[in-house]
Amino acid sequence: MNNAGVLNIEADSIESVVSALGQFVVSFGLKIIAAIIILIFGIWLSNKLTNGLKNVMEKRKIDASLQSFLFSFFNILLKIFVVIIVLTTVGVHMTSIIAVLGAASLAVGMALSGTLQNFAGGMVILMFKPFKVGDVIEIGTGETGTVKKIMIFTTELRTFDNQIIFLPNASLSNNLIKNLSRSGLKRNDLDIGVSYGTSIEEVRRIILNILKKDKRIINDPNAVVFVKALNDSAVLLTIRFWTRYEDAISVKAELLEKLYKILPSKKIEFPFQQLDVKMVK
């Protein structure tokens, strides 16, 4: 074979390789474009579906705690489904995806055992309902606030100083929880001191009259005023009354101010610590 024949064969080979490579690039490029379109549309559609689910749950008046949990769960689930479709579009076979997911799930399960515990804790909270969205709770670790959301792995809590904290569901399901708003009422004890010789009956009458004028104070159980202790320089009285939990702080603060203004006007004195010093020559 002469040199011209060899050159023609090499040219044909290069042309076929370039043609095959071009077809692959075009085919793969179209798959990438299709995958990007599916990803964008899939995320948009998953958001629309989860928002639609949220609207349906709100119309059916499903418990707010369950709403936030299901919304978070389905949102993540749909996005995982979109990613699988995108990988399949690019050319990754489902058997490969399943194999990778199987191996990854074992590794991730071991690495994220705490996260899985949080998921299980969220399910326990929704099933047994120790608290729900809107309840005021106190955790054994010291946090106190209003429950705003119960999500798959965490619970969102707004504290009384307007801080947002996220608590792991696993710790909530295994920890001491005080549901401060479950009963709807809170007992309040307020201590004040009056001078010795003061008529306890008169002080009790004045204080109970002040309490009756405040509509936020519950009449059942009735408020009481009793002697708690006889201190060195004062008779210590306890004022015990009941309010709704959300009214407790404001009622207590306002009552203190009223007592400070009204009792002295009725000739009832607040004693203060006295110290007698004797000079010895």
Would you give an account of this structure?
With 281 residues, the chain is of the alpha+beta class. The chain has three domains: 109 residues, Helix Hairpins (Orthogonal Bundle); 60 residues, Roll (SH3 type barrels); 81 residues, Alpha-Beta Plaits, CATH 3.30.70. Helices cover 55% and strands 19% of the residues. The protein has a five-stranded antiparallel sheet. Strands 6, 7, 8 and 9 form a four-stranded antiparallel sheet that branches. Helix 1 runs antiparallel to helix 2 and helix 6 packs across helix 7. It is elongated and about 125 Å long.
What is the C-level CATH assignment of the largest domain?
A: Mainly Alpha
The chain-level structural class is alpha+beta
Number of domains: 3
CATH architecture of the largest domain: Orthogonal Bundle
Helix content: 40-55%
Classify the oligomer: single chain
